[in-house]
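writing this on my phone so excuse typos. first protein, seq and then structure
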Amino acid sequence: MDGKLRIIQKRSAIGRQRSQRLTIKALGLKRLNQRIIQPDTPQIRGMIRKVSHLVETVEDC
């Protein structure tokens, strides 16, 4: 896991569990269709897994 991940928020966190809203915030996402780049680490992968129904992920090299 030595690369970057492009994370795109595809669905709103409104009405979701508080922990999911906080995870979206911890990833650095603030609005729909926002794209961010994060390092590919086990911690980031775990956060993505928790909110996988709200985000889309693309692996960058």
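second protein below, same order as before
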Amino acid sequence: MAKMISCPCGWTLISPQGNDDIKKHIQIHAKDHHPGLTETEDEVEKMIKTV
């Protein structure tokens, strides 16, 4: 099943490759668009939804 994560800024990613792919891309997004923002791995896990 595909996984989805949405950032409060409006950025959304849907990935058929699972949680590891989502985590990689949210880290890239956060670094590029929200420098200084720190999210724990648990917080990121809670943001991931199955679609």
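The longest helix spans residues 19-33. thats all i got for now
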